[in-house]
Structure prediction request, 382 residues.
Amino acid sequence: MAEPDFYLSDEQRELQRALREFVAKEITPIAAKCDAEERYPLEIFPKLGELGYLGLRFPEAAGGSGGSCLDYAILCEELAFGSAGIALGVYVHMALACAALEAFGSEALQKAWLPPALHGDKIGAWAFAEAGAGSDAGSIATRAVADGDDFVLNGSKLFITNGPIADFLVVVASTAPEQRLKGLSLFLVEKDRPGFRVAGSLSKLGVRASEMAELVFEDCRIPRDNLIGREHRGFLDSLRTLTLGRIASAAFATGVARAAFEATLRYAGERKQFGQPIGSFQAVRFGIADMATQIEASRLLCHRAAIAADQGHAHSREANMAKLFATEACTRIVERALHFHGAAGFMTESPIQRLYRDCKVFELGEGSSELQRDMIARELGL
Ligand SMILES: Cc1cc2nc3c(=O)[nH]c(=O)nc-3n(C[C@H](O)[C@H](O)[C@H](O)COP(=O)(O)OP(=O)(O)OC[C@H]3O[C@@H](n4cnc5c(N)ncnc54)[C@H](O)[C@@H]3O)c2cc1C
Prediction:
């Protein structure tokens, strides 16, 4: 599995190699501790920024380092291989907050926020979900009411990754409630805006190295200049950004599955029962062969969607299929990995139990498996 994929360019293989080195040095050694302490290692942002990784796929003119969607998929897989929680924090910052800002933000907003964000000096969050609005974005109840040159925000957001550590948020709020989905707009809210507060941190089963909070807006006044994209259309426009998120989810799932697979392959060679390595038993051998095959399939679907995006083809169905397959495969693979580790995998100090807690989230976020199937069926004309 460590062999570079033949279709990658020399530059992409070098990117993959350098990222593996970075992850082995900076992420793997702290992954278990951050998970146990439910703490995001803030120093990762400037380190990734310094090396140009946070700016991947963003134009150089905007403070980014250029590159393709495929480069970005490579980055996501490698970060998640080290820690799904740390990868999630980077993802929300790059693929949701910064991507929305870069795609739809005014020149002034981009100039003020993108260079420091892509350098890792400022951290972003994406505030979409609410207690009453998860899969159903049209139910968003946070209101933004125009008042002179300002908007006044009222409402609350739930399950917001990076909420406790973010310097700025991209908030999805309703500017025309009767229009539901077609009445949602995006706003940049700085962390020190009066009327905004982090209501409390939330503790999670998995991806615990990422920090999550509930956010509250009470008569939070923000200038009209902080509107990102078109009024009433911001969210619909940003769905393009969410397609990128599905490619990222597929890459994360591939990275987590690969971590589980590599550990299992090693363990199957070392662990002896009945006088022989457990990897010599057919049930284990077949299980590991299935893992490897599903990882390859996940990566190929993910990379196909990324290449389609890079070549300017419609790629929504490809991204949905990649996300659906890779995230469900990841859950199956990690479950088998824990099974083949026996009791040793069940112990708190085992990295496998962390992967087991981490993997499920990818099937839930960025559109659950049911929503992916629904969209794929719709794209098939049903
Ligand atoms: C670790 C983590 C990090 C997150 N980070 C963020 C973040 O940074 N920003 C943010 O805005 N949100 C974030 N979220 C929230 C995420 O956006 C929501 O979990 C997601 O939108 C799903 O909403 P829900 O959890 O309310 O589930 P619901 O929408 O209530 O769904 C519950 C169940 O019903 C099913 N279901 C719903 N509708 C349908 C349907 N039409 N057909 C069939 N089945 C359906 C779903 O598949 C699911 O199984 C995060 C969540 C987690 C777990």
About this structure: Strands lie at 124-127, 143-147, 150-161, 168-174, 184-190, 196-202, 212-223, 227-228, 272-273, 276-277. DSSP finds eleven helices and ten strands in the chain. The mean pLDDT is 96. The pocket of flavin-adenine dinucleotide is lined by residues 92, 126-129, 134-135, 159-161, 204, 207, 212, 361, 364-365, 368, 370, 374 (CB under 6 Å).
